[in-house]
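Researcher: Next entry in the queue.
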Amino acid sequence: MKKILMGLCVFLFLFVACTNEKNYDISSDNYEKGKASIEDIEKKNPKQFLKVSGNSKQNLLRQTVIKGNIYNNAKIVSYKDIDIKIRFFSKTGALLEEDMDTVYESVTPGGSTSFKSKYFAPKGTDSVAMTIQSAKF
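Model: Structure for this entry, 137 residues:
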């Protein structure tokens, strides 16, 4: 009787262990659908995946020279013709002027590109801020 009970317990244990098996579908269709949805998200939201940083200084002609870098954090999409809004601020933080600039470069996924622009900034400019406005893919 003990042997039958012990055999039944082993059988139940194996049966339960085998029924919890998950069936993962790793077909190429599912992979391509996931890849396509990531690509759609990246195409619709370039501002979310592009970052800009840089600095400014004045040259001898009293122009404000802006040197910056654009970073692409996307996984699939390359961006090009990137529009950047440049804002000039006073010491007190008042917005003095806004300008738009376009960087006609292509930035690959995970890559970066540098740019340089010159402006005659308004009198009293203390700092410059840059933000990505749009990009093409």
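Model: The mean pLDDT is 86.
Researcher: Noted, moving on.
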